[in-house]
Structures are given as C-alpha cells and as structure tokens.
Write a structure and sequence with these properties.
Mean pLDDT: 84
Low-confidence stretches: none
CATH superfamily of one domain: Tetratricopeptide repeat domain
CATH topology of one domain: Serine Threonine Protein Phosphatase 5, Tetratricopeptide repeat
Number of helices: 15
Structural class: mainly alpha
Order of helices and strands: HHHHHHHHHHHHHHH
Number of strands: 0
Distance between the termini: 151 Å
CATH architecture of one domain: Alpha Horseshoe
Largest sheet: none
C-alpha cells in the first residue's frame, strides 16, 4: 500500500516536472518569437527609411528649377534666373553632379550679365576646383581673369595712377595685363585703345566670346565689315558660350548690312527660337521676316476702281 502511494507521488512529480518544462519551453518560444517580431519590425522600418532616403535624394525639384532658370535666362530675366539656379543647386539629389556643373555655368553667366563679377568669380572658382571634363581649366582661368578685370574697372580700381603701373607691367612683357587694359579703355569708351589691347590679348591667349562681341560690335559701328566678320567667326569658334548669343546677333547684323536678308533671316530665326522672349532678337526677326516676305501683289488694282 505504501509502495503504491510513493509511486503515485512520483508519477505526479514527473508529470509536474514535464508540465513545468513545457511551460518554460513555451515561454522561451514566445520570447524568441517576440524578439523575431521586433527584429522584423526594426528591419522593416530601416528598409522604409532607407527607401525614403533614396527617393528623397533621387527625386527633387532640382531639374524643374534649373529648367525655369534657363527659361528666365533666355528671356533676359537674369535676377529670376539666379534665384532659380541657386534654388536648384541647394536641392540635394544624387547623381546630379554633371547637371549641377552646367547649372553653375548658367549661374556664372547670369552674374556676368548683371555686372556681379565677384559672384561670377566665386562660381568659376568652384567649377575649377571640380576639374570639369567639358570645359578646360584654361577657359575657366580666362573667365576668372575677365571677371576680375571687369570688376576692377567697374569699381574704379584702375585709376589713372594704377593705369600707369599696369601699362609698365604690360610693357615689361606681362601680356595678360592686356585684358585689364582693354576692359579699362572699353569702360572709358576709348575704343581704339580697347581694340589694341583686346587684339593683343587674343594674339597671346586666344579669343573669348566677350572680347569677340565687344570688338565685332565696335567694327560694325566703324563700318569695318571684314574685321567684324573675322571677329564674329573667332567668337563662334571660342570654347566658352558666355556671350555667344550676342556674337550671333552681330553675325545677323553683318548679313543684313551685306543685303543678304534671307541668310540673316535664317540666323535670326534660330536665335529667336533659342531666345523666344528676348525683345531685341524678336524685333530683328520680325523686321527681317517682313523684309524677305514682302507682298508684291498691289493692294488695289484698276479693276477694283471699276
């Protein structure tokens, strides 16, 4: 009887131990499942945040702002263009380095057109630091030198006493000073000396579109058509595009002076398409269109009177 009682107690103990073990295993499984669920949730959150981060850095208003800036630039609304280009560059977007560099070229051109030469230098310096493949370091250095020269003449830094020092430096063989002297005389409207120094700069360092524009405009005013043609051709082959539209406009005026109105109209049509809201280019196109497409039919005939 006592043996049966002990067997019963032992059996109950064994069952209790088994149940406790099962409960512990169940608790451990719940904890494992909870940890797994937490890890899955954290992983999902990381994936969602990562996807959101990638989307934010791949999609932005950068391109739209840049397009708006180009449109404003083509219309001659340079302040508006500057705002759009600056806002575009402030947008953080992956894989946009090449687009940003092109935007910076437009931005620098805006600063040049608005006489904000120091700001233009800052942009060109940034581009030079980036070592662009589509524009040479030599061209960027040329643009920086031009902006600095124009800034000095704008601010009156090239005064008569400074002019003598610059001339002496030029006479000692520093031909890069020709750019400063040319811009100085341009501001003073001493166009003969402007021509002299700008041409000397071209002979030593090559042409840029700004010098080509200024000299071709001067030659047109002087009636020196062959010189104007030569300078326009040099400007159109220059590496930079800073004042290329103005060089193209002078090319149209040359064809017009040669009475080659059809050729002038073709050039004006292309320039007008590229700059559809530029009033000067529009007026020139309208004039040439009316000149080429003159209605030779008389408004009234003898039959009308009868």
């Amino acid at each position: 009887m006592a043996i049966d009682k002990r067997d019963e107690i032992e059996e109950k103990r064994i069952k209790r131990d088994i149940n406790q073990r099962r409960e512990r295993e169940a608790q451990k499984k719940k904890k494992r499942n909870l940890k797994l669920a937490i890890l899955c949730s954290i992983f999902s959150i990381i994936v969602i945040l990562g996807a959101a981060f990638i989307i934010l850095h791949c999609i932005s208003d950068k391109e739209e702002l840049r397009d708006n800036g180009i449109a404003a630039f083509n219309e001659g609304k340079y302040d508006e263009a500057i705002n759009n280009f600056t806002a575009s560059l402030e947008q953080d977007q992956w894989f946009s380095d090449n687009m940003d560099d092109d935007t910076r070229l437009y931005l620098a051109a805006c600063y040049m057109r608005t006489d904000s030469y120091e700001e233009a230098v800052g942009v060109y310096e940034k581009l030079r630091e980036r070592k662009l493949s589509n524009i040479s370091d030599e061209t960027l250095s040329d643009m920086i030198a031009l902006a600095n020269a124009l800034n000095d003449t704008k601010n009156g830094n090239i005064l008569d006493n400074n002019l003598n020092k610059l001339t002496d430096e030029y006479d000692r063989g520093n031909k890069s000073i020709a750019l400063y002297l040319g811009s100085y005389y341009e501001q003073k409207q001493d166009y003969e000396n402007m021509e002299k120094y700008y041409n000397d700069y071209i002979a030593n360092f090559g042409v840029n579109t700004y010098i080509a524009y200024q000299l071709s405009a001067y030659y047109l005013r002087q009636g020196k058509l062959e010189d104007a043609i030569s300078m326009v051709n040099k400007g159109l082959s220059a590496e930079d595009d800073l004042y290329k539209d103005k060089v193209l406009y002078n090319d149209i005026i040359i064809s017009e002076k040669q009475l080659d109105y059809e050729s002038a109209l073709g050039k004006a049509e292309k320039l007008y398409k590229d700059y559809p809201n530029n009033e000067t280019y529009k007026k020139e196109y309208d004039f040439l269109y009316s000149r080429v497409n003159i209605d030779t039919e008389p408004v009234h005939t003898e039959d009308d009177e009868n």
